[in-house]
């Protein structure tokens, strides 16, 4: 099934000049990874402290776009500028789960979203990423199968943030989007597990 992740090559091509300048300035891939984690944590804290205000919600799409750019940049710095390391691999995988949790879990405090549905999405997202890593543990490539990968989750929560900030209704439709995300995440976990076994 198609995923926003498939747009990654075009996105990377757009970012490549920026990556070259960062490498020339001595910025490392691990520093970029840590910056993405810090950005997600800051946005998540804003949602946690001010869950009934709209301005943290308006920030979420911007934060998600910057985070996606930083995630692409750290990988390009590592691969194309000889910055790959064991620490970088650990930070890259744990950083994604940490950033997702830090930014998305506070949505459980945002009305009228269902706290249980938000928590379930975050849990399934973490399991899907762990399942992707299992492909490598079994001797194959890291699995990025959809239909609800990292980029798709970013699109979902960015849309939810804008939707709540602008209207906040109807609650049933907002929560239906989260339920559908849970179904798609379950599908993603199965696809990644099957892919890992096939490899």
Automatic annotation (TrEMBL):
Keywords: Membrane, Transferase, Transmembrane, Transmembrane helix. It holds the Pfam family CDP-OH_P_transf. The chain crosses the membrane at residues 32-50, 57-78, 103-127, 172-190. GO terms for cellular component: membrane. GO terms for biological process: phospholipid biosynthetic process. GO terms for molecular function: phosphotransferase activity, for other substituted phosphate groups. It comes from the Bacteria. Coiled coil: none annotated. The keyword Hydrolase does not apply. This is CDP-alcohol phosphatidyltransferase. It comes from Halomonas cupida. The lineage of its organism: Bacteria, Pseudomonadati, Pseudomonadota, Gammaproteobacteria, Oceanospirillales.
């Amino acid at each position: 099934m198609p995923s926003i992740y498939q747009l990654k090559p075009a996105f990377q091509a757009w970012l490549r000049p920026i990556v070259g300048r960062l490498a020339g300035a001595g910025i490392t891939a691990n520093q970029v990874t840590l910056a993405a984690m810090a950005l997600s944590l800051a946005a998540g804290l804003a949602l946690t402290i001010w869950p009934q205000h709209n301005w943290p919600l308006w920030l979420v799409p911007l934060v998600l776009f910057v985070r996606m750019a930083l995630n692409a940049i750290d990988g390009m710095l590592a691969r194309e500028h000889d910055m790959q390391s064991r620490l970088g691999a650990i930070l890259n995988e744990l950083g994604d789960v940490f950033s997702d949790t830090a930014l998305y879990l506070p949505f459980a405090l945002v009305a009228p979203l269902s706290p249980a549905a938000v928590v379930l999405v975050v849990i399934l997202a973490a399991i899907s990423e762990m399942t992707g890593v299992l492909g490598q543990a079994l001797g194959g490539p890291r699995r990025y199968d959809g239909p609800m990968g990292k980029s798709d989750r970013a699109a979902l929560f960015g849309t939810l943030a804008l939707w709540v900030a602008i209207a906040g209704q109807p609650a049933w439709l907002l929560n239906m989007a989260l339920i559908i995300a849970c179904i798609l995440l379950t599908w993603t976990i199965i696809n990644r597990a099957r892919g890992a076994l096939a490899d």
